[in-house]
Design brief:
Elements (H helix, E strand, L loop, with lengths): L6 H29 L4 H24 L9 H22 L6 H27 L5 H30 L12
Helix pairs in contact: 1-2, 1-4, 2-3, 3-4, 4-5
């Protein structure tokens, strides 16, 4: 029948919708966390939501693919995003290693956000352009990563320095 979609197409559309909604939520929450004071209960709660949403974005990205095409550049970016997210979350959650958990958390979570922004911009450019993938995915992603890298390596050390010498003490309350 004309206009009927298969169950797989419906499932992919549903996953795609969830993916977009959670990506927007992660972008918004990540921005709030990035520009608000660090530490404290609000930071942790918003951070947990960021982790949950970005984890969901990555799982949904990895679950949608076209059988004829297989895995593509966005799947590779999702794996990299998962690595940065987990590498930033685990040290903060465990407060380990004691001497560097906060540095690991700050840098990796910052990179997870830069990756999210890069993927979002690349996706928007890809959907709105007929240019080859190296221009729609590669160039915007490289630009975002370069700008993000400069911001991370100029802002994060200042933020960490502003947290004082007691910032590396283990905290028993999660």
């Amino acid at each position: 029948m004309l206009g009927c979609r298969s169950d797989k197409e419906n499932l992919n559309q549903m996953i795609g919708t969830i993916h977009v909604v959670f990506a927007i939520a992660a972008l918004l929450i990540g921005a709030v966390v990035a520009f608000r004071p660090k530490g404290g209960r609000r930071h942790r709660i918003l951070g947990y939501f960021y982790v949950i949403f970005l984890l969901s974005v990555n799982v949904s990205a990895l679950s949608v693919y076209e059988e004829a095409v297989g895995m593509g550049p966005f799947h590779i970016l999702a794996v990299i995003s998962l690595v940065t997210l987990i590498s930033g979350f685990i040290p903060a959650f465990l407060r380990r290693p004691v001497s560097s958990w906060l540095d690991l958390h700050a840098y990796f979570i910052s990179w997870s956000y830069v990756g999210l922004v890069a993927a979002g911009i690349a996706q928007i450019v890809t959907m709105s352009s007929s240019l080859p993938a190296q221009f729609t995915v590669g160039l915007p992603s490289i630009l975002v990563v370069l700008i993000g890298g400069v911001l991370i390596h100029t802002r994060v050390p200042k933020i960490l320095a502003g947290l004082g010498s007691g910032r590396r003490q283990p905290n028993k309350v999660h």
